[in-house]
Description:
The structure holds two protein chains of two kinds. Chain A is α+β, with helices and mostly antiparallel strands. Chain A contains eight helices and seven strands. In chain A, the strands form two sheets. A five-stranded mixed beta sheet of chain A has the order 1-2-5-4-3. In chain A, 43% of the residues are buried. The mean pLDDT of chain A is 94. Chain B is mainly alpha-helical.
Amino acid sequence: MGLREVLTHLNDLKATGIIQDYAIGGGYAAMLYDIPMTTYDLDVLAVLPTEDDYHRLYEHFRTKGAKIENVYIFIEGMPVQFLPNYISPLFDSAIEEANIVDFQGVSSKFVSIEYLIALYLTAFRKKDIIRVQSLIKKAKKKLLLDIIRRFDNDQYKLYERYKKVLADT
Amino acid sequence: MTNTNYMKDTKKFWQTREKARSALDKKRASVPLTEKVKSLESLQSDASFLKSGRRVLSNH
């Protein structure tokens, strides 16, 4: 079983209303944009407007007997981490403006390069900085700056972090 | 845009996730070599699958 089956499951979650929408982020989105990556878990940004919706998602999988470890739900053997949109408006926009990609009959949404960079800037661990340095070469600079300015705040300091990455690149 | 009440303090949320990710990494590091090879092959297969994708809608 592979990624195709996992995406089919995610589409089923959307079709049955358990999640309202979703977009793949993290390492798998970076791989879509040809950034070599060693990642084994799938980050899924999901429209789950309240914590109750988020708990209902886990309940759905628990009822089906799926393996759940910490925050990970194992779908077709792949650890999947759902990141609910109530965490930040940045998640909402990243899902809303994601790219739709077709894999021979299975369609899925993937966070755009520019939003992926903004999301990595919010986490800003060492490995995130390395990923930003790779992704930045492929990003549309004007669009990226627009996203960074739109979602910049005291907590994440996106613009400051962006300038720091540029200076170190 | 959905009608969402965004979380005010996300620190705990990210800490929980970071802990879970570390636990998963630790577990993965301790599996036998054959399992590691299998994971790597699966990752390569996923990378090829991603390459086969055709962008049908780009919002930018």
